[in-house]
Amino acid sequence: MRIAVTGKQGQAVQSLMRRGAEKGVEIVAVGRPEMDLADPASVAAAFSVLHPDVIVSAAAYTAVDKAESEPDLAFAVNAAGAAAVAEAAARIGVPVIHISTDYVFSGDKPAAYTEEDMTGPISVYGQSKLAGERAVAAANPNNVILRTAWVYSPFGANFLKTMLRLSETCEHLSVVADQTGCPTSALDIADAILAIASRLVTDPTPSLRGTFHLTGSGEASWADFAEEIFAELHKSGGKSIRVERITTADYPTPAKRPANSRLNGEKLASTYAIRLPDWKQSMRIVMQVILTKAFREIR
Fold first, then answer.
1. Dihedral, CA atoms, 106, 185, 231, 222, nearest 10 degrees?
2. Which residues have a Cβ under 8 Å from the Cβ of 22 and sit 6 or more positions away?
3. Which of 53, 72, 77, 210 is the most buried (most CB within 10 A)?
């Protein structure tokens, strides 16, 4: 199986390349300069020569706060760019797996969101990602849209790596405690994508297509997440870091964040028999990879 994935440096791309190499699956990363999501014409040209079995739409505009002042660029990449990738997949007759986000929801629901819940993004980034979901579904019915949240990995920039970096110079850190979500390892996301891709190329069952939620099991606030990171760091010989729990109001940002980013993964579990591990378990694995420098980003 050959999988083409958009982007080259993102967490999902790097993790997919790593997992693909471990499992003998050919992963071809496609990004700038040969393909630019802001230039739809370059998308079709890039995929026409690759002959993949599945296309994974992983690249995105992810600067959540910056999107508030760059809405045109956010929509160009996350909506029009995503549509171009789905159209390219449809043109060559292969499925597309599109990665989306918890930000398509408002965060007002008191329980975990299901795929049937009404969307209502409260930021430009969330609006652009929701537009991308709709564009992908319209462009290629042979699609799987995976909403995930709070992604971390040994690669790129993410909350876990930021906490580790800040711990080098700080004795305590203030972390928001009134936003709740499901921390998700990009390595686990990659494993799920490989399993889903394998089913899509061999099984035309309609119920395998559509929107699914893919997050680590369990839930946490950002402060909970930070405390677990620092506890693991301390176990590994690092210093002890104290977490001061603060509110969203104490840490204002240009873009609003959903207070509740919890996603219910039962549909994915029942359809594909995929349930990601407990987030604490996966976090420990990623922590050890980072602390032991077990592998580096693929260039």
1. -10
2. none
3. 77
Whether the pTM exceeds 0.90: the reply is: yes
- Kindly give, in sequence order, each residue whose CB lies less than 8 Å from that of residue 69, ignoring residues fewer than 6 positions away: 254
Q: Considering only CA atoms, which of 259, 228, 263 is closest in space to residue 243? A: 228
User: Could you give the 3-state DSSP secondary structure of residue 37?
Assistant: coil
What are the Cα distances from residue 198, in Å, to 8, 142, 191, 193? 22, 14, 11, 8
Question: In tens digits, what is the pLDDT along the chain, a chain of 299 residues?
Answer: 999 999 988 999 999 999 999 999 999 999 888 888 888 888 888 888 888 999 999 999 999 999 999 999 999 999 999 999 999 999 999 999 999 999 999 999 999 999 999 999 999 999 999 999 999 999 999 999 999 999 999 999 999 999 999 999 999 999 999 999 999 999 999 999 999 999 999 999 999 999 999 999 999 999 999 999 999 999 999 889 999 999 999 999 999 999 999 999 999 999 999 999 999 999 999 999 999 886 666 54
CA neighbours closer than 13 Å in the CB half-sphere of residue 234: 11
Residue with tokens 């699609």: 143
| Catalytic-residue membership of 125 | yes
**In sequence order, which residues have a C-beta less than 8 Å from that of residue 65 and are 6 or more positions away?**
253, 254, 255
Cα separation, 73 vs 26, whole angstroms: 31
DSSP assigned state of 263: B
First to last CA, the chain: 22
61, 103, 125, 152: the catalytic one is 125
Query: Cα separation of 218 and 149, whole Å?
Result: 12
In sign, the C-alpha dihedral spanning 226, 227, 230, 235 is negative
Cβ atoms of 275 and 268 within 8 Å: the answer is yes
User: CB neighbours of 14 closer than 8 A, spacing ≥ 6?
Assistant: 153, 155, 156, 186, 297, 298
